[in-house]
Each structure stands twice: as C-alpha cells, then as structure tokens.
Amino acid sequence: MALDQQLLDILACPDTHHAPLTYDAEAQTLTCTECRRVFEIRDDIPILLLDEARQPGSAEEQGQAR
C-alpha cells in the first residue's frame, strides 16, 4: 500500500535540519534529502527514529545498490 501524498508532504527528517524525505514505494523506505539516512516503512507506518535509520553507505545500503 502506498503512503498518502498528504502525509508525505508533511513528513520530515527527525534530525535537527528537518529536511524533506523522498519516498521509495518499491523499497518501502523514506530517505532524507540532506543527511541521506534511510527510514523503513513497516506495516504502512514510517519508522522515523534516528536510532533505527540506516546510515548512507552502510553495508546494507551498498548491498541494495548492486
């Protein structure tokens, strides 16, 4: 299920810069446009916890890029 566009319009990175997020429907993730952290969407709920986010360039991220 896709996230509602109105929700996507108001979601922002929880870090201090509060940058907008880009939505990847296929991967079910939201990516910060500034810090590049990747937040998972589980059961149609965005998990916007900094401790749960994947860092850019992490082993998991590199495996997805191949």
From TrEMBL:
Gene3D superfamilies: 2.20.25.10. Pfam families: Trm112p. InterPro entries: Trm112-like. Belongs to the UPF0434 family. This is UPF0434 protein Asi02nite_71120. It comes from Asanoa siamensis.
